[in-house]
Amino acid sequence: MARLRDCLPRLMVTIRSLLFWSLVYCYCGLCASVYLLKLLWSIGKGPTQTFRRVAREHPPACLNDPSLGTHCYVRIKDSGLRFHYVAAGERGKPLMLLLHGFPEFWYSWRHQLREFKSEYRVVALDLRGYGETDAPIHRENYKLDCLITDIKDILDSLGYSKCVLIGHDWGGMIAWLIAICYPEMVMKLIVINFPHPNVFTEYILRHPAQLFKSSYYYFFQIPWFPEFMFSINDFKAYLSLESIPWGDEGI
């Protein structure tokens, strides 16, 4: 009996983990089926329109607005990756590091770059795989350990030992983990639209409805198909992203 009591907590953790991932993969399959039906419907209505792509030779002029800051690049020695960021404010001021969400890039922080540059050295980073930052091709290059190390290396490369760290959505997840793993690097932490990782896992196991509110999160676990769905109709899906209930409203 004593041995059974000792094993019971580990058994419960294993069962909950299996239940969680079973829900995830089942929901991935459901999402894929729904989007496949949408794709077939779109092809039926107009195959030419579905696969239309407009050639864009130049980026939008707003990305080169000098009032937002200066475009900079830094190459990380250990990973060999080149990171792009936009910096505003004087060097030497306290660092405010901004981590964007999905599917965004540095431009999401344009208002904050203008607002806080008088008090901080504000840096809006393109995370690994986004914008003008290098994008390794293998999935293992996007593990959380790699993303956390990126931020630590960026901080070192900028010549700072700590910062005000702000993250939104997926960038919020990374910000939480930076604060957990390297608390000495964080003067202040601001996370927008992403709960503490432990809270999120516990909540979604106890409230299956949250699984549906976070459906996009699991849909993106499917290889290749989400990227293809975003590309149809000349990336029209991006135009409606602001109307999507992104993720964590139930928490």
Automatic annotation (TrEMBL):
<keyword id="KW-0472">Membrane</keyword>
<keyword id="KW-0812">Transmembrane</keyword>
<keyword id="KW-0378">Hydrolase</keyword>
<feature type="domain" description="AB hydrolase-1">
    <location>
        <begin position="94"/>
        <end position="214"/>
    </location>
</feature>
<protein>
    <submittedName>
        <fullName>Epoxide hydrolase 4 isoform X2</fullName>
    </submittedName>
</protein>
<keyword id="KW-1133">Transmembrane helix</keyword>
<dbReference type="InterPro" id="IPR000639">
    <property type="entry name" value="Epox_hydrolase-like"/>
</dbReference>
<feature type="transmembrane region" description="Helical">
    <location>
        <begin position="18"/>
        <end position="37"/>
    </location>
</feature>
<dbReference type="Pfam" id="PF00561">
    <property type="entry name" value="Abhydrolase_1"/>
</dbReference>
<comment type="similarity">
    <text>Belongs to the AB hydrolase superfamily. Epoxide hydrolase family.</text>
</comment>
<dbReference type="InterPro" id="IPR029058">
    <property type="entry name" value="AB_hydrolase_fold"/>
</dbReference>
<dbReference type="GO" id="GO:0004301">
    <property type="term" value="F:epoxide hydrolase activity"/>
</dbReference>
<dbReference type="InterPro" id="IPR000073">
    <property type="entry name" value="AB_hydrolase_1"/>
</dbReference>
